[in-house]
């Protein structure tokens, strides 16, 4: 919209509407007997339709439109639903209140309303609704760092949602479960859940779940995912700002794993710009800020010492990013160990030894407080590295080796059991899934016999990553002068394999 030739921000119009809905909700919260459940449901079909539309609109704004638009649409629908008695629309609105409360954040209220939603749906005998309420209860408990309760709710949500056949909601509950595993340090299980969720989401066209699963997968696997999978998701041209930001974080971690720090920083800064442009504020995009600080610090450390001005400038940029990450971590506590660790490492790089020790100690304490075992191990490794750098004592080297061993113990590749396949081998299965779809289309589209043979040969080479491929007629298998359909000699090919 434009006024006097100038573009008027959307928040100019949304703010007064949101303020009104907040006042209405305050009345519902403090005077529930006087303000809620007063109207009969009979004859209110249009009102209930409006509730459902506002619910869908809040979902849309959650991923695309930022906090103001999401809060307004949600509260508008919820205030309408609370005027009537228990209904599926009221159960849905109260369950959605849980993720909306993470934007403030106000975790206790979110947990309370998720439970209210579950109670309503149990009274209505709505099995699907119970699963959806439990899924959002797990979400709010994850954001509140109560991982054990979150996992319990999410496991039950997956069971109920599978029973009712809603794979889309199963995917949502599953990647939230993977996040819980990631935070508690069970990286192998997090990767397994992400693989399954990614495959299921891609099979039904759930691009949001597929993108989020890839992001969590990249964090749990330390960037060990095929870049082709990310490019495939980007090619779908998602308009979803939140999923786009998560995919850019995954891309940054893949580049980091490959030693391409400038490319990694470019990816994550595009993710941060996406967040800013959309006005998003939620737990799921908070990790980008801490990872931005990590990448900038690593780039500063990689800067040659004979370029002190560039190194100093990069260190200062990393310190600014770490402070911003810490501001987000005060609201989203799952990210506090990472943000404080970056503050400590950057303080050490700037010569502030006491500040570094203090921040690292606080990082370890925050990790212990929320049960983030992997984050605690990373912080202890950072403490040991600083101690070894300041001392030549054998005990420092022993502490460093012990800390490094503890971190490697979490690594799903380095710590795999003997005889189990490496992560890369399993990753390639999903890499080939996309290729399988493409070559299947090529084979089905072939209109001539030579074209079909060429498509089959090309498909086998791409899927099996072979050096040669031969197409042999079954009637010629026992012929001692056997040749391929196209006439090549097969003298060096095993006849046992052909038969």
Model description:
It is globular, with a radius of gyration of 27 Å. The protein is built from 23 helices and two strands. A hairpin with a 2-residue loop joins strand 1 (2-3) and strand 2 (6-7). It has 499 residues and is mostly helical. It has helices at residues 11-30, 32-35, 45-63, 66-81, 88-101, 107-124, 127-143, 147-164, 167-184, 187-204, 207-220, 227-235, 241-257, 261-278, 287-302, 308-331, 336-349, 353-370, 373-390, 394-410, 423-445, 449-464, 495-498, and strands at 2-3, 6-7. The protein is 74% helix and 1% strand.
- Beta fraction: under 5%
Read across the widest sheet, the strand sequence of neighbours is 1-2
Spans of at least 5 consecutive residues whose pLDDT stays below 50 are 1-5, 414-434
Annotation, overall tally of beta strands: 2
């Amino acid at each position: 919209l434009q006024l006097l030739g100038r573009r008027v921000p959307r928040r100019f119009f949304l703010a007064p509407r949101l303020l009104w809905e907040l006042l209405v909700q305050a009345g519902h919260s403090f005077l529930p007997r006087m303000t809620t459940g007063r109207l009969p449901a009979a004859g209110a079909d249009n009102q209930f339709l409006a509730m459902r539309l506002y619910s869908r609109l809040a979902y849309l704004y959650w991923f695309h439109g930022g906090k103001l638009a999401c809060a307004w649409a949600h509260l508008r629908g919820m205030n309408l639903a609370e005027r009537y008695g228990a209904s599926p629309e009221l159960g849905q609105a109260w369950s959605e209140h849980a993720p909306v409360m993470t934007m403030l954040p106000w975790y206790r209220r979110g947990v309370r309303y998720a439970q209210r939603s579950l109670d309503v749906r149990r009274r209505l005998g709505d099995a699907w609704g119970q699963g959806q309420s439990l899924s959002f209860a797990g979400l709010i408990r994850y954001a509140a760092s109560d991982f054990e309760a979150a996992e319990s709710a999410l496991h039950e949500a997956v069971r109920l949602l599978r029973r009712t056949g809603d794979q889309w909601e199963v995917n949502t509950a599953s990647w939230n479960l993977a996040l819980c595993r990631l935070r508690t340090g069970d990286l192998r299980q997090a990767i397994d859940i992400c693989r399954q969720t990614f495959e299921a989401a891609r099979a039904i066209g759930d691009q949001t779940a597929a993108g989020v699963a890839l992001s969590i997968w990249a964090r749990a696997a330390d960037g060990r995912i095929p870049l082709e999978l990310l490019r495939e998701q980007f090619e779908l041209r998602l308009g979803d700002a939140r999923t786009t930001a998560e995919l850019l974080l995954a891309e940054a971690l893949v580049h980091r794993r490959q030693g391409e720090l400038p490319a990694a920083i470019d990816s994550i800064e595009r993710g941060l710009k996406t967040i800013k442009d959309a006005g998003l504020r939620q737990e799921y995009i908070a990790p980008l800020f801490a990872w931005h600080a990590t990448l900038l610090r690593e780039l500063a450390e990689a800067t040659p010492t004979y370029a002190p001005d560039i190194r100093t400038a990069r260190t200062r940029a990393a310190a600014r990013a770490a402070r911003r990450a810490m501001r987000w971590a005060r609201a989203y506590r799952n990210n506090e160990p990472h943000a404080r660790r970056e503050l400590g490492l950057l303080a050490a790089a700037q010569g502030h030894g006491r500040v570094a020790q203090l921040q690292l100690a606080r990082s370890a304490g925050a990790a212990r407080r929320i049960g983030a075992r992997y984050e605690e191990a990373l912080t202890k490794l950072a403490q040991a590295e600083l101690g070894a750098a300041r001392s030549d004592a054998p005990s420092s080297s022993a502490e460093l080796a012990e800390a490094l061993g503890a971190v490697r113990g979490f690594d799903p590749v380095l710590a795999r059991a003997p005889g189990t396949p490496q992560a890369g081998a399993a990753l390639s299965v999903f890499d080939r899934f996309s290729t399988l779809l493409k070559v299947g289309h090529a084979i089905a589209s072939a209109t001539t016999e030579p074209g079909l043979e060429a498509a089959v040969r090309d498909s086998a080479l791409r899927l099996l990553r072979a050096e040669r491929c031969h197409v042999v007629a079954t009637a010629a298998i026992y012929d001692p002068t056997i040749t391929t359909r196209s006439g090549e000699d097969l003298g060096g090919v095993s006849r046992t394999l052909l038969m």
